[in-house]
């Protein structure tokens, strides 16, 4: 596999939205878990660009605007016609007192608090604020950010959808797309079920799905991914390592879905690792490449906080995975028998 390009998320628009199959996730550049110096952030973005990555994703939440502001500096160096940029809407940042700063997993952040707002005015405000922080009018894709229930509960999700479809949020997205101010719309979420719910209501181009279709999780094969193929909806796959364990293996302290991995997951990852070791192939490379075996998945976007991490992502993306490894994973029941793999794409080509 190489850094190939494909047209995606553009079936309803006049201009194609091109994505490299390996993209760049901007959450770490918002100082996720630890502070990153501005110079290191810029070097990381340059490393991604120099490696041939041309799809970059960020969001207001990432460092309460810090990730977008760091992207702004890099965008002055990058060719805007050669790259695709996405950010997210629905979280408006407000100035606040120090004690009101939204508690997040980001450190050394601006003095801001987050207000969820999926109304017409909220979407437009979020979009304009992101343009200002990014220093550009060229945002290609807008994703509704965490519109699903998550840790907030079902009432939170229901209220967000009411704002989106009753109070004009979707109208705002549609207007921006129809006016050519953006090329594609979707949602950046942690569950595939909310994506199905959104598709029942309206016309979306794609979804940024964190995890949920990985070596450890293939439930979307049953309904959701076939629906994406039927509706010509593209998936951008974030979190290919299930928040860590598919990168680290079943080590002490390994994390799955942002929490310490339970024993059943640890056991399964040990078995996955054993098959990979038998084929002299790193588990992390198999995890990164696996989602792209499905036609609905257009790109994977692991995060990186250093140039070395970018180069590692590229190396493992380009690592050759033996066809027999995929077969062994299926024969041992470690991935579903009906899960398409990258070797299936190679065979079709």
Automatic annotation (TrEMBL):
Q: Could you tell me which SUPFAM superfamilies the record lists for this protein?
A: NAD(P)-linked oxidoreductase
Enzyme Commission number(s): 1.1.1.107
The entry's cellular-component GO terms read: cytosol
- The answer on whether this UniProt entry bears the keyword Oxidoreductase reads yes
Record keywords, A-Z: Oxidoreductase
Kindly report, in one word, the top-level EC class recorded for this enzyme. oxidoreductase
The NADP-dependent oxidoreductase domain sits at 22-329
Does Oxidoreductase count among this protein's keywords? yes
- According to its UniProt record, what is one Pfam family this protein matches? Aldo_ket_red
Q: List the molecular function annotations (GO) for this entry.
A: pyridoxal 4-dehydrogenase activity
User: Which InterPro entries does this chain map to?
Assistant: AKR (IPR020471), NAD(P)_OxRdtase_dom_sf (IPR036812), NADP_OxRdtase_dom (IPR023210)
Under which name does UniProt file this protein?
Pyridoxal 4-dehydrogenase
Originating organism: Antarctobacter heliothermus
Which lineage?
Bacteria, Pseudomonadati, Pseudomonadota, Alphaproteobacteria, Rhodobacterales
